[in-house]
Model the fold of this input.
Amino acid sequence: MSTPSFTPRVFSGIQPSGDLHLGNYLGAIKNFVEMQEAREYETVYCMVDLHAITTWQDPADLRRNTRELCASFIASGIDPEKSILINQSQVPEHAQLGWVFNCVARMGWMGRMTQWKDKAGKNAENASLGLFAYPSLMAADILVYHATHVPVGDDQKQHLELTRDIATKFNHDFGVPFFPIIEPVIKGAATRVMSLRDGSKKMSKSDPSDASRINMTDDADAIARKIRKAKTDPDPLPDNMAGLAERPDARNLVNIYAALADMDPQAVLDQHAGSLFGHFKLALADVAVEKLAPIAGEMARLMDDPGEIDRILGRGAERAREITVPILEQAYDIMGMIRS
Ligand code: TRP
Done:
């Protein structure tokens, strides 16, 4: 099979399940903005509401969380003119191709997904069928755009391998090189944002302590206070990263500083070696407030005008469908479905 060339296109998605925090921003959204600005690819960013409902969502919460996620994208610098910004259920071809992929993927493949095993746990009999099929819909999200590059966190790597398996099997079963074999774009360790109360645990919306995370909606005071109270140790900052190997709380703050200031962690240490954390935290709070407080302010402004958010998403869906409708049509045609 000769391999056709595909337009370089980025696709990524985030679940609108609420409570966005610094981990979402530094681990995903900030990188989405950089890929948009690089102008090397077309960029498509998606709120995956159909994935969110694989576990129960209160309808009012889902509506609000979807708009809030959209607001966070825009406030962070995703430009709905430069990127295609969409809500998954408003582009029906995702679900349509998802069904096709349910017929391509094998039960065994799905059963091996670690996220399925973690989320379903001992109660698999009671999990939704949608939760089991989650990775198949995710493959459809990506492949219905013929996307070539998918920036995700480490935890999604297995789902991207499955996306490659689905594309390969479809191409093989029908003897056409129709779907691209995607490249994962996994970000390095520096963007793993850990809890401010325990540097060995990921920052998480499900941590009962609000002080453990910086929420994207936190104002300047809250941001500065949480950084001041972040867990550290009594030692001064070392002059190289190896000196932080056994100091997860300290390392986390240095990494957060580096990511927010667009610096190498080593460059942060070059500037702050020998400082105590009392002092370093003041500098970190300054950078964090400078970068994050305007985003929170802009999110609040956007959330005051939900009609405007909905218009942006409507327009995004129209632009998306210029890509997805022809690709789905071709896939149906390849499989022998009558198009008239
Ligand atoms: N599963 C992803 C997550 O939980 C979200 C997602 C859904 C996604 N569809 C996608 C990410 C397509 C990248 C591409 O983070």
Summary: The pocket of tryptophan is lined by residues 11-13, 15, 48, 51, 138, 141-142, 150, 152, 156 (CB under 6 Å). The CA atoms of residues 120 and 126 lie 8 Å apart.
